[in-house]
Amino acid sequence: MGTLRNGWTKRESFILSVDVGTTSVRCHVYDKHANIRGSCSRKVSLLYPERGWVEMDRRHTSEPHTPQNEQHGKLQ
Fold first, then answer.
1. Is 41 inside any structural domain?
2. Could you give the CA distance from residue 37 to residue 47 in angstroms, rounded to a whole number?
3. Chain-wide mean pLDDT for the chain?
4. What's the structural domain count of the chain?
5. Is the pLDDT reported for residue 66 higher than 70?
6. Cα–Cα distance measured from residue 21 to residue 67, given in angstroms and rounded to the nearest whole number
7. Is residue 4 included in any domain, yes or no?
8. Which of 35, 30, 24 is nearest to 72 (CA)?
9. Who wins on pLDDT, 55 or 63?
10. Which of the residues 4, 26, 67, 70 has the least number of beta carbons within 10 Å of its own beta carbon?
11. How far is CA 49 from CA 6, 9, 20, 52, 55, in A?
């Protein structure tokens, strides 16, 4: 096993799931036992460019995760 850092070891494998919904984007990190090891979420702004149209603001689903644009906390 690798060295312990933030409760995780270097050689562990994880699965990242991303749920892009209508009002939010959520992420969960699972270990090999299907335990949630981390999660985060952020709200998504909806745009209405024309009557009857709805779009997600791509900046809220594709911009990098940085402290400057973080809204709901780090992956915990």
1. yes
2. 33
3. 76
4. 1
5. no
6. 23
7. no
8. 24
9. 55
10. 67
11. 44, 47, 20, 9, 8
* Burial profile 15-30: b = 16 or more Cβ within 10 angstroms, e = fewer: eeeeeeeeeebebbbb
Answer whether residue 72 is part of any domain. no
Give the span between the Cα atoms of 30 and 67, in whole angstroms: 23
CB 76 within 8 A of CB 39: yes
Work out the percent of the chain whose per-residue pLDDT is above 70: 63
74 CB-near residues (< 8 Å, 6+ apart)? 40
Range of the domain at 51: 12-62
| Contact residues for 64 (Cβ-Cβ < 8 A; gap 6+) | none
pLDDT at 31 exceeding the cut of 80? yes
pTM score, two decimals?
0.55
